[in-house]
Specification:
The protein has about 575 residues and is α/β, with parallel strands linked by helices. The chain is built from 16 helices and 29 strands. Helix 4 runs antiparallel to helix 5 and helix 7 packs across helix 15. The protein is elongated.
Length: about 575
Amino acid sequence: MELRKLSPFISVSPQISIEDVGVAASHGFKTIICNRPDNEGEDQVNADKIGQAAQKNGIAFEYLPVISGNITDHDIRAFAELMAKVKGPVLAYCRTGTRSCTLWALAEAGHLAPQALLDTAQQAGYDLSGQQARLQQRFAQSSLVESDKPGNYSINKHTVVIVGGGAGGQAVAASILQRQPQTDIAIVEPADAHFYQPGWTLVGGGVFEREQTKRKMHDVMPKAAKWYQTAVSEFRPDQQRIVLENGDQLAYQSLVVATGLKLDWEAIPGLKESLGQHGVTSNYRFDLAPYTWKLVQATRKGNAIFTQPPMPIKCAGAPQKAMYLSCDDWRRSGRLNDINVEFCTAGAALFGVKEYVPSLQKYVDDYGIQLRFQHNLIAVDGPNRKATFAVTDNDGNITNVEKSFDMLHVCPPQKAPDVISHSPLADQSGWVDVSPETLQHKHYGNVYAVGDVANAPNAKTAAAVRKQAPVVAENVLSTLAGKPAMAVYEGYGSCPLTVERGKIVLAEFGYGGKLQPTFPAWLVDGTKPSRLAWLLKEKMLPWLYWDVMLKGKEWLAKPKHLSHRPEPQGAPDACNFEEKK
């Protein structure tokens, strides 16, 4: 069987045999489309035989015959409608593959540039130059046709569309532009400010001023990218489009989803109404981090409770960071003995990677913190300063326990944004469904995700984004070139645990909790508190964020690569790793 890949979603082939169907199944194809009329040639295997073989191999089969040299507008519409509903990856075939390739190009000409289609076909071995005028006509007419539809919305076309202008979206854009400066990139982001969120812990600890963590979006947005200052209302991956909140659409050749996650304040009754008053605060919000520091300074005695919800959450160590810095200040000022500190976590352990627990436990003991495992915050009564927790015992029984507080620092439950969880891109939990290694979508090969919105089982940290962005950038460019995604993310995440003012336990780990230290142990032993790690957090990491990561500079972040990869594949898995030479 002679496979010729046009995109991660579709490949074409000359006439296939019954035996080839099994080969197609082994390559991961989910649908086979026959574009060749039966009995066109004496040596031809008719569609019903191929269909039967496909059924035995668990592959869907579609028969859409097209007469050679006579592809009609009806044929093109039928092919486009079929492609919009079938499950990929798709294998389409005819006598030589030319008809299938031509159908694909003419169907895609409604939103992709003719030259890009001609180049892709040429790379696959098909010369469609005779279709150039028809491709250009369909491309030109598509905007006119779409603008006349109800609502008078417009369609703009870009090579790469990135949804989200936070750390992930901008880092990917910058990395792509470092590799191919002329790439046509659009970034969809409604906010007018960009935040260095890892700095909010230090704001809540009295180390940073809030304004140090904020810059104007216009000042940090890559100048070579087109910025749409709006939000996305719908994803249409089958059409390779997104819909903006005003109804306009953006067509793309490759999509990067970098929306981040949603802080679900509403999930805990009474919490949202209490924030910023009654002693209720959270470093997870820009406007509330200064209130945390105000409460730390004002608290003289009583109960201080720090909470952590069920995973996944952004920066799993952040709830503890706030607690340790607060305790350190209270100890320095001689107030700690008069304050009862509790860490109420929905989890069953202090930290998910065991190598860091001994150092953290020592600080818990030194500060006199009471650990309350399997305590999940379910309600807040701000005016009466009461917090209710669902407590799970060792037998799985749940009881509600009410606690009084003078200060309550809350880490809110977190989930995927609604626009993601309600889209075809989402897994059962609502996150973008990607390969954990290549970050390529498991069903839509020209879609990638970066950062908190991806369902990869890594810690959701800015450090993870720094390692993910080059991987996604490189794989996007490979996809655009019709090549498989080969760059690999190994799950790296970093959590600088601020155990006291001036010292940090620098947790760095990847998939499965495997330690991935950046520096040798003689310089920084991440399992132990270190002053050098504090200087890294306070002085170096903000610079690394603003001037390295967001500029596409990949210092200590060059991706590794798969040593081999089966083709074609809509849902890539890891093979062997090797450093890029």
